[in-house]
Amino acid sequence: MESSSRNDFPRPFKLERYFAEHEFTAPYMLCASDCESIPMSELVSLMSTKTRDLWDKLSLHYTESQGHPVLRKAVSELYESDVIGPDKVQILAPAEGIYVALRSLLRPGDRVVSTWPGYQSLTEIALAQGATVDRWEVEENESGLFFDVDKLEALLSRPCKCVIVNFPHNPSGALPTAEEWERIVALVSRQKAILFSDEMYRGLEYNASDRLASACTLYSRAISLSGMSKVYGLPGLRIGWLVSQDSAMLEACAAYRDYCTICASAPAELLALAGLENADRLLQENKDRVLKTIAALEVMFKSPDVSAHFTFRPPKAGPISLVGLRNAKSSSAYCKALVEKVGILLLPSSLLEWNGSYMRIGFGRNAGPSNVQRWHQAVKDGLTPV
User: How far apart are CA 136 and CA 354, in angstroms?
Assistant: First the structure.
């Protein structure tokens, strides 16, 4: 367990700066955390009659700050719970949801426990607020990557204001069992702490039986984050949501958001509604893409020339996981060589301020299997970690 604290402006976002440099120039993306998108024209063609009528009559005025009522209703129905109605939903950009929630709910001196590693803003904003962040770190055994709930219990043996979790986990793909998840929620509830649950990858479990109940349906002080960016493959919409039974927490987030975007894009809200109307199709297509890329990776990692240098265990959910280095200490040099020499982009774990001997890999794009083959050929040609 590591602990850190600070009270100033957030530091540069290492992962986003890395993508700003490489995402649109590297020919072969193999570490994207989202899934394949579809053309806007196709999404419009999939609109229901009622949504298409709203689209055709749309004017570009300001929108309701809480979000379009029809979209909030559609989001609330995703949770299949009597305690979550449209009034418990706040529409905003996903990254903005992290920012406004942690800015509005945390104060200097608060103690936070968070899954680690993760998307930098999940902890960076807490640190910038003056909170102390203790890390609940992912571990690996022969079965794969996982979080030890006993270690969370030890971390929660003293007072805590907020617990931040992300399941399915970015970057590892780790996913607790239903029993472990119930225990996690119970541990947070015992502390009467806020549970901030990043659920951006929920819905892309390879077996539906592995899907966890949303935190916001299980605990009155939980606030769940989700959106269209990852599993639905629609990141260009910049539409996400916060959901909570606690109206006061949502009102605090809404008040802080008045200093950010204020409201969502009118066209984006209706395009998101169309995405949710076709959620089953989008999720199934993206799951198919993920499984095809994983199958290609399993073939690659069975090859002795690859397994001598790398380790890989497929996750149970999500479009990302980690590849480990067997012998080299740092993946940064290898990722740099890979993108410069053959144009393949992987993400070194050092950018996540965690064990530098891993790389994040993404499964959700159409080009995944062919990019895996390119990577395998590069390894055969001698491009291996040193």
Answer: 12
- Does the pTM surpass 0.90? The reply is yes
Report whether 128 contacts 7 (CB < 8 A). Answer: yes
The dihedral sign for the CA sequence 253, 255, 258, 263: positive
Task: Compute the distance between CA of residue 129 and CA of residue 18 in angstroms, rounded to an integer.
Answer: 25
DSSP symbol at 237: G
Bridge partner residues of 222 (DSSP): 195
325 three-class SS: strand
Beta-carbon neighbour count of residue 18 at 10 Å? 16
What is the average pLDDT across 131-151? 96
With b meaning 16 or more CB within 10 Å and e meaning fewer, what string describes 84-119?
Answer: bebebbbbbbbbbbbbbbbbbbbeeebbbbbbbbbb
Position 204, amino acid: L
Each residue's pLDDT tens digit, 78-108: 999 999 999 999 999 999 999 999 999 999 9
Q: What is the pLDDT of residues 251-269, one digit of tens each?
A: 999 999 999 999 999 999 9
Cα gap 182→113, rounded to integer Å: 17
Region of 344 please: left (phi>0), alpha (psi -120 to 50) or beta: beta
Residue-wise pLDDT tens digits, 158-175: 999 999 999 999 999 999
Asked if residues 90 and 246 have their Cβ atoms less than 8 Å apart, the reply is no
Task: Report how far residue 226's alpha carbon sits from residue 208's, in angstroms, rounded to the nearest whole number.
Answer: 18
Q: Spell out where the chain has E strands.
A: 3-5, 28-29, 89-92, 111-116, 132-137, 139-141, 144-146, 162-166, 194-198, 222-227, 240-244, 310-312, 320-325, 344-345, 347-348, 358-362
CA dihedral 175, 385, 295, 120 (to 10 degrees): 30
Read off the amino acid at residue 382.
G
Q: By C-alpha distance, which of 38, 34, 36, 63 is closest to 270?
A: 63
Going by C-alpha positions, the residue among 125, 187, 123, 179 that lies closest to residue 159 is 187
Distance between CA 104 and CA 317 in Å, rounded?
31
Query: Each residue of 12-59: pLDDT tens digit?
Result: 999 999 999 999 999 999 999 999 999 999 999 999 999 999 999 999
Q: Tell me which H or E stretch contains 185.
A: helix 178-191
In this structure, are residues 99 and 109 in contact, taking their beta carbons and an 8 Å threshold?
no
Tokens of 163: 């617990």
Do 145 and 313 touch, CB atoms closer than 8 A?
yes
Structure tokens at 66: 């809480």
